[in-house]
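Hi W.,

Here's what went into the run:
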Amino acid sequence: MLDAGRHPLIDVITNAEVIDCDGKPGDFRIRVRKNVRYVREDLCVACGLCEKVCPVIGGNEFDVGLKARKAIYRPFPQSEPAAYVIDPEACLNLLGHLTEKQIRRLEKIQKVKQRKRLDYHPNILPCGHCSEACEVDAIDFDMKPQETELNVGAVLVAVGFQEFDARKLGNYGYGRFPNVVTSLEFERMLNSSGVTQGHVVRPSDLKTPKRIVFIQCVGARGEGGRPYCSRFCCMNAVKDSMLVRQHDPEVENVTILYTDLRAFGKGFDDFVQRSRDEKSATYIRGRPAKVDLVPEDDTLEVFVEDTLGHEQKRIPADLVVLSVAAAPNDGAIELSKILDIDTDAYGFIARKDAAVSAVESTREGIFVCGSAVGPQIIPDCVAQASAVAARAQLYLTGHRIEKHEEEVEQIDVSGKPRIGVLVCHCGVNIAGLLDIDKLVESASAIPDVVVAESNTFACSSTGQDALVELIREHKLNRVVIAACTPRTHEPIFRDTCAKIGFNPYLIEMVNIRDQCSWVHAAHPLEAQEKARTLIRMGVARARQLEPLHEGEAPMRRSALVIGGGIAGIQAATDLAVQGFPVTLVEKEGELGGRLASPHLKYLYPNMRPAAEVLEAKLKRLEKSGARVLLNTDVESITGYVGNFEVNLKGGTEELLQVGAVILAVGADLYDPKDEYGYSRFPNVITSQELETMLVKDDKNIEIAGNRPQSASFVLCVGSRDPEHFPGCSRYCCPTAIKQAILLRRTGMDITIFYRDIRTISTGAEEMYREARGLGVLFIRIPEGEKVQVKGSDHAESVRCFDDLLNRQLEVPTDLVILSVGMQPKQPETSKFHDILKISVGLDGFFMERHPELGPVETAVEGILLAGTVQGPKDIVDTVAQASAAAAKASVFLAHENVRLDPTVSVVNEEKCRGCGTCAEICEFQAPKLVEIEPGTFVARINASLCKGCGTCTSWCPSGAIISRHFSDKQVYAMIDALFSAETSK
Amino acid sequence: MKTTPTLELAEIAEKAKAWACYDCGKCTATCPIARAGGALSPRRQVLATNLGHRENIVNNSSLFACLTCGLCSARCPVGVVYGKLILNLRQIAYHDGIEPECPHGGALQSMMRMMAKGKTKQDRLNWLTGDLKVHQKKGELFYWTGCTMYYDAFFPEFQITALDGTRSAIRVLNRLGITPVVSPDERCCGHDLLWNGDRENFELLAKHNVKLVEASGAQTLVVSCAECLRTWKLDYQPFFEGSPPKIMHITEFVAEHLDDLKFKANEEHTVTYQDPCRLGRHLGIFDPPRAVMDALPDVNLVEMPHSRKNSICCAGSTWSNCDRYAKHIQVDRLREAKATGAEFLVTACPKCQIHFACAMKDPNLHEEIEIPMRDIATLVAETLAD
Amino acid sequence: MTAVKTKRKAKKKTKQWNPNIVVFACNWCSYAGADTAGVSRIQHQPHFRMIRVMCSGRIQPGFVLKAFEKGADGVLVSGCHIGDCHYIFGNERALEQFEKTKNMVRLLGLEEGRLRLEWISAAEGARFAQVINEFTDQVRELGPSPLATGNRKH
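Here's what came out:
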């Protein structure tokens, strides 16, 4: 959030709505109404003085009403912009501005108060406490809504979702029984910075619930008229159950009532397994009808059929959590009308083509991502958001290249330290508790401090001016700013310093607000002492600071995409249309991967012919100007972001130089070998082989000259199997259902053997219902078991214990289809793991940098993952991820130079023993051993790969590595200063 | 503020016989650091001291580059005691607030200084196994363990365990019918602090340790670590109130009692021996370790080209000289050891073992320089007849 | 409520000894968690001083030992939860280093309770405060570090 707020090319307009959209792709004119905040964003320093004096209390939306807030408030602690906002419906000073609706509401409140004989006074004089308290005059009651027009090339709709209103399912008791809460309310309680600081309590008596029951699919999968699956609720319940058990030993048990456990994401099944191993929750398959109140002891009771245990159960509960579904935003339909885009049957924004593109709306130039199109898990949302960034480029001009700042003359900072100390009052935030004058006085007495001053708001523009003046007047070469946290404010002070040519790495921030005055209000004397010591430590560290300069390395503004499947095609196209030279290499003789004939017939959910989709994609690729090399393999890749050298061999042999590499080599399908009679029986085939038959003729399936009358699908073959791949392959459930529907329509009897039906993609749940409607039978395979395919020379039946029916079943069948899962592609995965040194996860697939924050990036900068190399995905997710990879690659390629952060680790080669410890432990491959003379090796750290964590520094046996800005000297100076008695000059 | 006033340069020069120097440069030509490419010229340091260039000396990084191995002094035609010069110069530097940049983030120096403060009850004897017989307070013979237990805790990544040598020494003493005093209150001998100029903390340690040994009533003090031994034999002398006990290296002690030990003949082993600088050149103990190895029926000692007085340092004294040049010296030394065809490199100082083990951790030279190591006491203990 | 109040008053009267605690924190999680405690005004005891590094992987045994050498009564090492490290595995490396440190501290004869490792995320302001309070009380219980008295005075 902070990153977006600070980005020079991002304007954030909050508290605003779109009221009109005109124009065409590349040239939209959007009218935006900015609603009134009554606090000027440019002036507010978020000091919180106003909040303290505000006399009105309202309900806190961020904490879903669980907690109160004032009428002037910051929506939540990390809000961006940080400015406060006034709730016009609660503020006592805004009566004059009230709308009729608001006046009516007020009257109603007054009436209630009157009736209940609360302290009723009919007349209210304007209040204005906040504007009196505000020291920067940021409060403006005369603010009016403003309309602005924006001219943009593309529009992204990312309006998210809202909770399904659980009151609509009255039987669950939400709204009637206080101890029935929604998952969001539960989440706020569980959050350590939330309403109850992480303690889960029963709203009725604030006691810790001993027994918690989660009810899944509230408002989803058929409940409340919504057939779709909300995707995130299963994992959320599992996670919450683990958290609450870890946090609170008083919670004795958590029960999760589910239908299918949809742990489809990367590593999710492992997570569920952990929860089962740790017994954090009891899982019961069954959906309850209602929640009853047991008035005797104010507990609840949930009545459910345990569909696997074959008994009806009354489950006592102290707290019931409803895993509420994601519902479309109330405003989504209105917005869709303004933007002239379609919505789907439920009111989510519609995608142009649900089978292929996750991010295109029905109007060109308008994109959509995240849960605005339907429920999503975070990694998918983030990948889609990045995908939009790539696709939208087509409609944007300018802004591609970073701005070059003017060179300023550097201030000479050499010589003995001349330290200036600036102590910030931060209004009363600091000065309210600490004696600023005394801090200034003690700071002045520290050796090398030539001046110490205080300022009301050091971060305000006047405060910044004062800082500049201080540096110039006293010829400072180090500055210590005792104020708030460097995490938010260091960039501001650094920026100011850089602008006047003062090396920005010579400032040191001392946190006497967030980590002192704000948290030690009860101990003013100790807080004062702490602040004094912290300043002394800051000065000691400042003495040891060194001027640092950002480095630059030239960026080769071109990319290599490895793998010519749908992911590679998409990534290459998206990058090439932006004007970057792209080379796409494919080992085989044709592009298309699994989409190419004869692998795939139709795409779910809308039965788009795969050939048609591929043709369109290939056309776009051709138009994009990307260079395609077939029958070509990558022999080696060396270098780092901006400067990779790639050796190609095969069809085209050359040395290629690129700035970024996108890995899109795809995944293998599991080979069942002799499992399920695959190698013995001719009528046992894989889902892939069936697809090939369907490509040939989807009306007449023939096996060894026979037309089968019945078929059985076996799901999770090679997936969710600890021996092969522990995770879920995601694509198989909807694919099997798609195939089943096709076969069923030819008149065949179809049975599907499944573990959990995980139809999590858009439209897939509907397809599942359709299949059931068509008479496809579904039989659940019990946990940890496998079905048996019986027969002598060909498969005759499939045997399975049906744990829903609690008996052994044997289904005669003419054809068995094994829905094979995905496997890491070999030998490619091992090969690229070796040459690129990017990590492979426990499941064997390449590891992303962070599941939520960096789903397409790797630990190695400039190397990106597209599609199933990162883990199993279906086509729509693969395409989105490929576009995201292109977007992330273009982030690098947009720059002429690679900016090298100077706060990295460097090697003192005289001290280096060449033991290779650093190279061994670095996750980013930054240190390498170099032979500087025969037999003498030293480590060199590549500044463009180093992230500056300093782990190598602490492991270097000879002390040869220095973590710039966090060197041993700097840290030890602080420790020394902490324990040294104060000295005067 | 320091307990012992530092000497003036002129005094230092006099004590180290530096005035005799006629700038021949043989010391630099001898110096293993200089030969490995490091910018260390003992001669220049001597000259600067003679000329009284204080700034030039204390701020010079080469002040801490010297290994104090004593090889230059052994070769000096006029007998300048360079080690003594360096020791005193470093004290001046320490007084000025200049300390070497220590590897491992100074963790080992912190450990030493914490011991100097005393005050805590160390938990340093939990490695004693049931078969080892020791007294904790009083006895005829005091066995000085040194800080091997700390090294093992701090360097888990090396496959060697310094404590093996310590246990073996006690085992050998037990076999001779001796139950040594092994004290839980032993502290760091202060060798490294002293040689880095911190005389203040050294003295605290010296006083404590001397008192501890005196209180035990021991007539003999047996030491395994060469650095501890030097410190006890030479640097602790002024701190004794009564007459000091007989201070011996474990090899000296074993060499004197060879007749009382029975050895079995295992499979024949060819070994080579690293003379620790402190044991060899500093104290002149060259023969006892060799006598011990000679007596072992299964050990066949092959000398390296550089041995005894000419031995090359393990390049890691005082946990402060760790760098590229030190590594160079270690690699050369290990190559020399391997070239003898020996199965083991035997050392008589746990620190030699640690420094060589560190050097062997090298992804490029690994096989060229890897040679298994043994502490000499372990070698003896393993050969004891049942 | 009143019981708590009187208890607090009683404590004040006896003028309890307060420890001197050093906290090493990584920039991305634990330091941020302390900031979160601040933003949410979650009060905790003030007897600690924080030293920020980028990653807990940077926190080497020497840092902790130096703090004890100088007289710290307690040292808290903190970083991101395992799996959440901003630098992927820095905190796992920190854990290895911490084990070494712990062994050294044990050998040196300092109580194990003076040294602690905690994973605290950026969101866990309340947990940060709780850890600080618990650790402060724990160290207070142990009393001053034996090494605290012999400080070198400059």
